[in-house]
Inverse folding.
């Protein structure tokens, strides 16, 4: 299981220089990957193109770029640009393109777009995106997305892995049959083991695809005051307990809210919980550090994560 870091700077109006510095620190600390969200800050794939040139070797990921506001041709262009910029002359595969539906309230209320038939949308979206990433051309004619186009990009750009924010059965089946895997958030270990991992593996096997990646992201905090730490999770990440897709996973886990699936505790407790994810089929764990920057708990959290490498 590879260990990566989910960057918090991007969610707090950080500058490009701050993002590059964060990625460089992640690389210097020995982590395998550095992940960005796509919310309302900088465009994440553009940031990865910059970071990839500034910070060598570090794998880069998005978790996740919403699909509805971006045509799959545009998504492919952005991803191939970032991959090419990061790879340079090496031709390496440094980018994992995490994509997702976002949420109905975001797509309809903020973007003014339809959130109709989300699983069908994702399936047709991938029918355009995947060939463009792999061969740079596509001819697809679906109910909602139709296109026939060839990209004028250089040969030799390695197609980035695509992972879908898939939690429900329909989305897991789509992710397993059409992409390299899934990326989860606010999904606890019991649900990962009993639902996410077996569902996506079964779909990949049925489609004759390789074993899928399961990228799991969770809040992580090393502290001696577990109650206070979980209270902070409950405050900082409260919204995720109300969004239907995450609420369904929390209910499946049998917990009240985000505070209950966060990995919080002493060094030994946190290490044990992270190591356990490897045994249930998580291929990549992405730690979301949320302690106050510069605090002792922040230092302890990063030190513990480094010790697991």
């Amino acid at each position: 299981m590879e260990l990566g870091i989910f960057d918090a700077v991007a969610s707090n109006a950080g500058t490009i220089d701050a993002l590059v510095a964060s990625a460089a620190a992640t690389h210097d600390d020995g982590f395998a990957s550095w992940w960005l969200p796509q919310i309302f800050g900088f465009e994440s794939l553009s940031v990865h193109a910059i970071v990839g040139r500034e910070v060598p070797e570090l794998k880069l990921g998005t978790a996740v770029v919403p699909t509805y506001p971006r045509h799959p041709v545009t998504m492919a262009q952005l991803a191939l640009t970032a991959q090419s910029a990061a790879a340079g002359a090496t031709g390496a595969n440094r980018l994992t393109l995490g994509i997702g539906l976002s949420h109905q309230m975001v797509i309809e209320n903020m973007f003014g777009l339809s959130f109709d038939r989300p699983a069908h949308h994702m399936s047709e979206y991938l029918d355009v995106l995947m060939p463009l990433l792999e061969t740079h051309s596509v001819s697809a004619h679906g109910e909602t997305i139709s296109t026939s186009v060839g990209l004028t990009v250089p040969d030799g750009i390695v197609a980035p892995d695509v992972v879908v924010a898939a939690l429900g059965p329909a989305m897991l089946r789509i992710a397993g049959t059409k992409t390299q895997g899934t990326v989860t958030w606010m999904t606890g270990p019991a649900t990962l083991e009993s639902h996410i991992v077996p569902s996506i593996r079964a779909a990949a096997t049925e489609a004759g695809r390789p074993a899928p990646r399961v990228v799991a992201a969770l809040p992580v905090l090393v502290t001696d005051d577990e109650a206070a730490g979980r209270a902070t999770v409950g405050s900082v990440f409260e919204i995720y307990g109300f969004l239907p897709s995450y609420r369904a996973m929390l209910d499946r886990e049998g917990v009240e809210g985000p505070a209950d699936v966060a990995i919080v505790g002493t060094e030994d407790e946190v290490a044990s919980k992270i190591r356990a994810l490897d045994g249930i089929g998580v291929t990549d764990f992405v730690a979301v550090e949320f302690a106050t920057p510069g605090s002792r708990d922040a230092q302890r959290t990063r030190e513990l994560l480094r010790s697991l490498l």
The mean pLDDT is 97. The two ends are 10 Å apart (CA to CA).
